[in-house]
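(Deposited chain)
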Amino acid sequence: MARQVPVEAVFEALGHVKYPGFTTDILALGIVEEVKPRPDGGFIVVLRQATERDDVMQRLAANVHQALTADLGVSEVELQVRRVEAELGEKTGRARLAGTKYVVAVASGKGGVGKSTVAANLAVALAQMGLKVGLLDADIYGPSMALMFGTGDERPKAGGPQNLYPIERCGVNLMSMGFFLDDRAPVIWRGPMVMGAIRQFLKDTLWGTQDFLIVDLPPGTGDAQLTLAQQVALDGGIVVTTPQDVSVLDAGRAAKMLRQVHCPILGIVENMSYFVCPDCGERDEIFGRSGADRMAAEEGTGVLARIPIYPEICESGDKGLPITFTQPRHPASQVYAELARKVLAMMPEDG
């Protein structure tokens, strides 16, 4: 009889197999359903069919065989694929977030486009409509909401052995990794810890009953985005870009990521869209034009808002009070108010 490799070693090896095109391993994604030893020393590995694309499943199968036979020394590997109705991002257990009517993600392909500014001001604008709003800062590595809402040294209060109350500012309930960091301490975590933090902020925060949870995603297409999509049903995603071609290109990747995890794209927000001269009133599109329009056409969606460049937007955020709160009649605040009205109108009636 062939030497039997321990089942634990097989699971450990599978934990190093990445899903094709993703940075997350197939164990974390829930694609491995079962591992069963065979009498001949081999193993049966049962995988969920996470996609209809045969080429992706073939690459995945080849990677599993490589990890178990060539790298681990398993004699034989029998792969069984179990078809499920849900694709990647529709992981079993994904459900509505208790007490929350709508969950909307704000994403971008790259940093520096003002995504967090858009998320913060959108949340405040929704709250100013009389709605109950929560804002989850899911950017674990670069949280900014503590600064943008001026929470200082305030920390969330415990609501039980595992629960936390969000911090309320400007009519919005907030939760952020920034509430737990000292000064400028970096977060040096691997993917599973990031995913665990997102799950905890979603499920263990005492959000209460609310109309919206706005989720400020980190730039790119990584673990935080996948975890969010696996844990809760998303009612829509907003992609933030600036007019430059490089920003539009990266934002297109963020849009495709949202589609892959079955999040409806509500539309594009073009930040830093134009500058209005305070003296003559002339409008200058200093970063170019039509970037958001091209992307919207490619993705089959529309442009929800064009946020102008005003020094007051940045100054308000740096002072810890979004401009929609401090200057609700400011032209930029009016653009955010219109964005909030559009987002509300696009929400499903059965949410």
Summary: The mean pLDDT is 82.
